[in-house]
Design a protein that fits this description.
By secondary structure, the chain is an alpha/beta fold. Helix content is 40%, strand content 14%. The protein has 2 domains: 268 residues, Alpha-Beta Barrel (TIM Barrel), CATH 3.20.20; 39 residues, no CATH class.
């Protein structure tokens, strides 16, 4: 007799925590070591598969005088938190096309405690992304391909990009809803499309959802239903603007006994509550609107940062409508 679906789990599902990497976009990655260490230790205790500890981005574009250590993930900084990482948790860093000195700043895997490089790029940056993926794979890393802002790319552009990416050494093709604009039907279509292109070369499909319309968790579930096996989430949904799929919800949904929720709630209590007193994130009305209209959240972020505009939702709506 088959088990009921709500008491079973898919062991092939793997979870990546992007709390520090995506969350750092709200404070220029100026996290204290204690915060990063608490997230790392919680990931280990909770049985999470991957932790994305930050970016591998250019110090020329993101100077150390304005950005914290987790924008660059220098080896000494990472090891200060994790040592040699004698745990099953795999460590990841993201490298942006056009913003990373990837040829020189990403060391060979044999010299690094990092395990994974996630290459992030827009559709017009696919040629550089392919070179970045090959470079990271040649250096010994597991690599993923994160095509950003897919909600504003044309279907033909996505097809062409996936056709090329399917032939790279990337192990995973990630559906990235950068603007939090996608609905379940679109997630279904995209996951099936990514699976189709990746199947011949044995690639997994992932999902990275933003919470502008409070759909990040629901869209992640939808991606799972249709075959995505690599899932991004962050503790308390911490992330740029509206934030991401909350880790505490995702692990509870997955029902896999290897995942433990208590360490996540300890981070929420001891780290996120104090952090929320100095910075904000979450699906505020301005982010709802940019999600609904499939717009980059930069204007919403600017409005939320301005005390004069923060609660003037009508003015933001009027300006957004006039610009669409």
């Amino acid at each position: 007799m088959a088990k009921a679906p709500w008491i079973t789990y898919r062991p092939e599902l793997k979870v990546l925590d992007c709390t520090v990497r995506d969350g750092g976009l709200i404070n220029n990655h100026m996290f204290e070591d204690g915060f990063v260490r608490a997230v790392y230790e919680a990931c280990v205790e909770a049985g999470i598969d991957y932790m994305e500890i930050g970016y591998k981005n250019s110090k020329k574009l993101f100077g150390k005088d304005h950005f914290g250590a987790w924008r660059h993930c220098d080896e000494d900084d990472v090891r200060r938190i994790v040592g040699d990482n004698p745990t099953p948790l795999k460590l990841s860093a993201m490298a942006d096309a056009g913003k990373s000195d990837w040829r020189t700043e990403i060391r060979p895997k044999s010299e690094s405690v990092l395990d994974v490089i996630r290459v992030a790029f827009y559709v017009h940056q696919v040629p550089e992304a392919v070179d970045m993926i090959k470079d990271a794979a040649d250096k010994g890393y597991e690599v993923t391909a994160n095509l950003m802002a897919v909600s504003v790319a044309q279907d033909k552009e996505i097809d062409q990009a996936l056709e090329v990416l399917a032939e790279t050494p990337a192990s995973t093709l990630v559906v990235v809803d950068s603007f939090g604009a996608l609905y379940a039907e679109q997630i279904e279509i995209l996951v099936h499309k990514y699976l189709e292109y990746g199947r011949a070369t044995g690639k997994e499909v992932g999902i990275h959802a933003h919470n502008n319309q409070q759909l990040a968790f629901a869209n992640t579930i939808e991606a799972i239903i249709h075959g995505a096996n690599r899932l991004d989430a962050s503790m308390a949904g911490l992330g740029r603007g509206a934030g991401n799929c909350p880790m505490e919800l995702l692990l509870g949904f997955l029902r896999n006994p290897k995942f433990k929720l208590r360490p996540i709630f300890r981070v929420l209590q001891e780290q996120m509550v104090p952090l929320s007193r100095s910075v904000e994130w979450g699906p505020f009305p301005q982010y709802n609107l940019t999600g609904q209209y499939n717009q980059h959240p930069r204007d919403a972020m600017a409005a939320r940062a301005d005390e004069r505009l923060r609660d003037d939702f009508v003015a933001f709506y009027d300006k957004l409508i006039s610009d669409v």
